[in-house]
Automatic annotation (TrEMBL):
Signal peptide: none annotated. It is found in: Cell membrane. Residues 19-385 form the ABC-2 type transporter transmembrane domain. Keywords: Cell membrane, Membrane, Transmembrane, Transmembrane helix. Its main location: membrane. It holds the Pfam family ABC2_membrane_3. The chain crosses the membrane at residues 21-38, 183-209, 230-256, 276-298, 310-330, 336-354, 366-388. One of its GO terms (molecular function) is ABC-type transporter activity. This is ABC-2 type transporter transmembrane domain-containing protein. One of its GO terms (cellular component) is plasma membrane. It is a multi-pass membrane protein. It comes from Alteribacter lacisalsi.
Length: 415
């Protein structure tokens, strides 16, 4: 058992001190901080130079529409001023930087307002969009007045319809709970997806690297291959847990720092049911053990690190399919294909958790999904240990199924 922990902690600390691990942790933590502060980031972008712009409104004939447009624009948050200068003078002053932008208002053939927005650069669409909205509002009001339509009646026509969604069942989730579930499901799906790609590849590369350097031959003589396999799996698992603890801590602190701001992330992240978090951890753990065992076995079949991607690619494609099914399931969690795939071990960690988060499932369905995963992991461990035992002693080109048969044959001889 001591040798098991020696390999486990050697794997853990070696990867923990690697530049790739430190860099990926820092980058992910920065992304989490960015997501937690997304509202402030948007505000920072919006509080740039365009927010301080003053739009000069020019109407050469009279100011019938200018004052109305200016008032409407001000209500939308755009600072305006009405000027008597000519369009040519406004263009010259704008090109010289004296004016931020100007709006030329005229009366169309139908007697309704038309406008042209001019600025040195129109790359930022925020202010032009708001000015277009202001002109459109004034045009609608002018047209309504011409037709004798009362303004209150016009407001009633354009008022948004009152439409709410309510579930009849007492056990069904509310819209707020569904939004929280979507947030967590999305997060877990992304976590599992990248965990399989990163940690699975890491395990396979670790095994292949030892075979390439012939260290494996020395290890096999002192430690059983089965102990090696599980020591590496749990060593990388400990590494993953460490990384996610750091990232989650950063996320929690970031959300806590925004407490009371009323932002979107605070609304979603706070009040998530504790039961859902437990399910998230359980399915993540089951998914990791399932895919990590397969990755370790596949890594034992190759002789060089360059060949790892060849054997890992099919597993990666399976994870991509699971990811796509989960994304589809967010909008249709009760779909038959979602129900069926949630009981297939390759898809269960993502798809079953999706159903748990979005629907009120019977306990037996969740238990059945977890049970199938547990049984699959045990079977994979038993079969995988035999393949791994023979695979670590194999050298040569990868030939998939033949390699597995050969590894099993070598394993029998080594008994």
């Amino acid at each position: 058992m001591n040798k098991f922990f020696i390999i486990l902690f050697h794997t853990f600390f070696t990867k923990l001190k690697s530049r790739s691990f430190i860099l990926s942790t820092i980058i992910t933590a920065v992304i989490v901080v960015g997501i937690a502060n997304i509202d402030r980031i948007f505000e920072a972008f919006e509080s740039g130079s365009d927010r301080d712009q003053v739009v000069t409104i020019i109407e050469e004939r009279d100011r019938e529409f200018s004052s109305l447009i200016a008032a409407e624009a001000e209500s939308l948050g755009v600072e305006t001023e009405i000027s008597d200068m000519s369009e040519e003078e406004a263009e010259n002053r704008t090109s010289q930087g004296e004016l931020d932008a100007f709006l030329v208002v005229s009366e169309g053939a139908d007697g309704l307002p038309e406008a042209v927005y001019k600025a040195r650069s129109i790359a930022n669409e925020r202010v032009p969009s708001l000015m277009r909205q202001a002109v459109q509002t004034v045009k609608v009001q002018a047209a309504a007045a011409r037709l004798g339509i009362d303004e209150s009646a016009l407001d009633a026509v354009y008022a948004p319809v009152t439409f709410e969604t309510e579930a009849v069942s007492d056990t069904a989730r509310s819209q707020e709970e569904l939004n929280q579930a979507r947030f967590l499901v999305n997060a877990l799906v992304v976590v599992i997806y990248f965990s399989v790609l990163a940690y699975g590849n890491m395990i396979a590369m670790e095994v292949a690297a030892e075979k390439t350097s012939r260290v494996m031959e020395i290890l096999v003589s002192s430690v059983s291959p089965v102990k090696q396999m599980f020591a590496k799996i749990f060593g990388i698992a400990l590494l993953g847990i460490t990384q996610y603890v750091v990232i989650i801590t950063v996320g929690v602190l970031s959300v806590a720092g925004n407490a009371g701001s009323g932002g979107y992330t605070e609304e979603i992240a706070t009040g998530i049911p504790s039961g859902l978090l437990v399910y998230a951890f359980v399915f993540f753990l089951l998914g990791y053990l399932f895919y990590a065992t397969i990755s370790a076995v596949l890594g034992s079949l190759v002789s060089r690190t360059e060949e790892v991607n060849i054997v890992i690619t099919p597993l990666t494609l399976v994870v991509v399919v699971a990811f796509l099914i989960s994304m589809f399931g967010l909008n249709a969690p009760d779909s038959p294909i979602i129900t069926i795939t949630s009981f297939i071990p390759f898809f269960t960690p993502m798809v079953m958790f999706l159903r748990v988060g979005m629907l009120e499932l019977p306990v037996w369905e969740v238990a059945a999904g977890m049970g199938l995963m547990a049984v699959s992991i045990v079977l994979l461990a038993l079969i995988g240990a035999r393949i791994y035992k023979g695979g670590v002693l194999m050298y040569g080109k990868v030939s998939s199924i033949k390699d597995i048969r050969q590894a099993l044959a070598i394993s029998k001889k080594e008994r």
